Amino acid sequence: MNLMRKLTAALAVSVALCTAAYAQDILLRSSDTHPDGYPTVEAVKYMGELLKERSAGRIAVEVYHSAQLGEEKDTIEQTRAGVIDLNRVSMGPFNGLVPETRVVSLPYIFRSVEHMHKVMDGDIGADILSGFEAHGLVGLAYYDGGARSFYNREKPINSVEDLKGMKFRVMQSDIFVDMVAALGANAVPLPYGEVYSSIETGVIDGAENNFPSYESAKHSEVAKHYSLDEHLIVPEVLVMAKSSWDKLSADDQALVKQAARDSVAKQRELWAAREEASRKMVEDAGSQITTPDKQPFIDAMGPVYEKHVTDDKLKSLVERIRAVQ
Ligand code: GTR
């Protein structure tokens, strides 16, 4: 009887342990440079809600917004090291690491946001996403980042000539440095968090970004001239640490991938609304928007393509992207 009781107790403990192991929460920590409420931050939160619901509470996502975990270049390294599980970043800062991301960082590679969607939602997008795997990351989904244009504290920009000799901050990638040089201006690669004070103190004349970043990072307070030249349409990407991914069961991996995919439509919806709202906000606060003829800007990009589109893989990606109607 005594033995029976002991056996039953032992069984109860192991059942409890198994259940505990099964019910154990998986917490995925996610990084974003943008403030709370920004479309990318909200989209990853939404993905977290979907995951929680679909895993019956086992998997949760915690979003650390406002660069709480660091600037993008650093968080990319921390994600590769598995310290951060998820990271929502621009494709730009990946240029030195993941060669496939270079093609979407070429100026005027996309004719429009619709063209970018078609490309990224199809085979080419899938090929680029799989390029992250060799670098300790799993590419989960693309988000919208709209079009990026130049803004500055000095004067309205109506032509390429107006940019001559000016100093602009760019994301940390050699392609963007050469892009600015091709326009006759000077590029200063800096982390996002240093842009406001660098413009304010006159270390640089301006930067380049979409309306929601220009507005939410308050660059619009210190650089009132925004010129809609739309030289870059760089998608945002959501990546996961390969080591965090490998810890998940195949079923949970599928849940994560699907929730990420399902957050894309939500992000696009939030993005469209925020782009319009941000533009209105900065205009109301006194920003002057000019709309220069884009063709001379496009024509000036020849040297950037000549220098950076050299290997066959990139050449074929450029051709494939251009062929998408
Ligand atoms: C934003 C982008 C960020 C960051 C930033 C920058 O548009 O969403 O991920 O790359 O630009 O310019 O550093």
From TrEMBL:
The keyword Phosphoprotein does not apply. One of its GO terms (cellular component) is outer membrane-bounded periplasmic space. It holds the Pfam family DctP. GO terms for biological process: transmembrane transport. One of its GO terms (molecular function) is carbohydrate binding. Keywords: Signal. InterPro entries: DctP_fam (IPR018389), TRAP_DctP (IPR004682), TRAP_DctP_sf (IPR038404). Residues 1-23 form the signal peptide. PANTHER family: DICARBOXYLATE-BINDING PERIPLASMIC PROTEIN, PTHR33376. This is TRAP transporter substrate-binding protein.
